[in-house]
UniProtKB/TrEMBL annotation:
Annotated transmembrane regions: 6-29, 41-62, 68-96
Keywords: Membrane, Transmembrane, Transmembrane helix
Organism lineage string: Bacteria, Pseudomonadati, Pseudomonadota, Alphaproteobacteria, Hyphomicrobiales
Domain of life of the organism encoding this protein: Bacteria
Record Pfam families: AzlD
Protein name: AzlD family protein
Length: 102
């Protein structure tokens, strides 16, 4: 495999842009005396948006064991800690795969 200068420059540019957006947000927030309500609302919505982008494809594209595990994780997560939620979902997937099959 030969060294591709174009690909290396694309990777470097992506790294610089990623770093700039992350450090830019930090610098912007630290320079503000107070966070405006609309910005605070947007920042509060980020975890739900990220969770949705991770869970929705797994639910709609994954098999039945994924769907069942996510539903179990939802209900367990409403009652106990996140660690137990992950353990419960993992157990559901393992039982499904070992008893019903892939």
């Amino acid at each position: 495999m030969a060294f591709d200068l174009h690909m290396a420059l694309v990777i470097l540019a992506a790294a610089v842009v990623t770093f700039a957006t992350r450090i830019g947000g930090y610098i912007l927030i630290t320079r503000m005396k107070s966070i405006p309500p609309r910005m605070e609302a947007a920042l509060n919505a980020v975890p739900a948006a990220v969770l949705t982008t991770l869970v929705a494809p797994a639910f709609f594209i994954g098999g039945w064991e994924s769907k069942l595990a996510l539903i179990v994780a939802l209900f367990v997560g409403l009652r106990v800690s996140h660690t137990w939620m992950l353990v419960a979902a993992w157990i559901v997937v393992m039982i499904w795969r070992h008893t019903i099959g892939l």
